């Protein structure tokens, strides 16, 4: 049996397909959970030797040598005046690798270090970055409650539209 489809039916189907594609493109809440904050070492005031190691780690990441980058960042931690930077960098590497538990551990090291300081951190945005990124790693690992708590902590350190939108999206998915 032959089925006859009118031109108007085909047009309607094409329009519906476009509408569905638009909705799908606009409603990808999980893709926003990949947007970690990466610290740009080139724009930071860091001692030359330390900056060299951090930039070497970034070069290794760019060359997809993640384990080499982690080893380089680990060496910097003990010598650094700002050990939260390589700790955050390690968390970013582990997140990129999909090793979310190790990523959470690295960001937690940075958060704990910053909390242990007797004076305010020289770069308050580092705490925001560590909490933000740990939240995303927690979500990816299935710890939504931990992710929400970390987003709220990040928001308390640095208010902004992007972090508020992320928090709303994450609260909706729970």
What can you tell me about this protein's structure?
The structure is a single chain. The protein is an all-alpha fold and 174 residues long. 70% of the residues lie in helices and 0% in strands. Helix 5 runs antiparallel to helix 6 (125-140), helix 6 packs antiparallel against helix 7 and helix 7 (144-157) packs antiparallel against helix 8. The longest helix has 20 residues, at 7-26. 30% of the residues are buried.
Distance between the termini: 49 Å
- Helix-strand string: HHHHHHHH
Largest sheet: none
Model regions low in confidence, pLDDT < 50 over at least 5 residues: none
Q: How confident overall, as mean pLDDT?
A: 86
Number of helices: 8
What spatial form do the alpha-carbon principal axes imply? elongated
The class by helix and strand makeup works out as mainly alpha
Helix content: 55-70%
Count of strand segments: 0
Into which percentage range does the β-strand content fall?
A: under 5%
Output the radius of gyration.
Answer: 21 Å
Write the layout of secondary structure elements.
Elements: H1 7-26, H2 48-62, H3 66-77, H4 84-97, H5 100-116, H6 125-140, H7 144-157, H8 161-173
Helix pairs in contact: 2-3, 3-4, 4-5, 4-6, 5-6, 6-7, 7-8
Core attributes:
8 helices; mainly alpha; elongated; 0% strand; 174 residues
In short:
The chain has helices spanning 7-26, 48-62, 66-77, 84-97, 100-116, 125-140, 144-157, 161-173. The chain is an all-alpha fold and 174 residues long.
């Amino acid at each position: 049996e032959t089925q006859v489809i009118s031109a108007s039916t085909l047009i309607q189907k094409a329009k519906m397909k476009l509408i569905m594609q638009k909705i799908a493109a606009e409603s990808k809440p999980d893709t926003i959970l990949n947007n970690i904050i990466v610290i740009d070492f080139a724009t930071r005031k860091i001692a030359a030797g330390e900056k060299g190691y951090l930039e070497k780690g970034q070069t290794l990441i760019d060359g997809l040598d993640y384990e080499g980058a982690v080893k380089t960042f680990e060496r910097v931690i003990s010598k650094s005046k700002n050990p939260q930077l390589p700790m955050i960098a390690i968390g970013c590497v582990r997140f990129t690798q999909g090793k979310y538990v190790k990523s959470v551990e690295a960001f937690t090291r940075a958060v704990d270090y910053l909390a242990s300081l007797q004076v305010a951190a020289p770069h308050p945005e580092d705490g925001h970055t560590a909490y933000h990124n740990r939240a995303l790693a927690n979500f990816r690992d299935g710890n939504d409650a931990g992710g929400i708590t970390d987003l709220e902590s990040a928001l308390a350190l640095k208010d902004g539209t992007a972090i508020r939108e992320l928090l709303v999206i994450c609260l909706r998915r729970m």
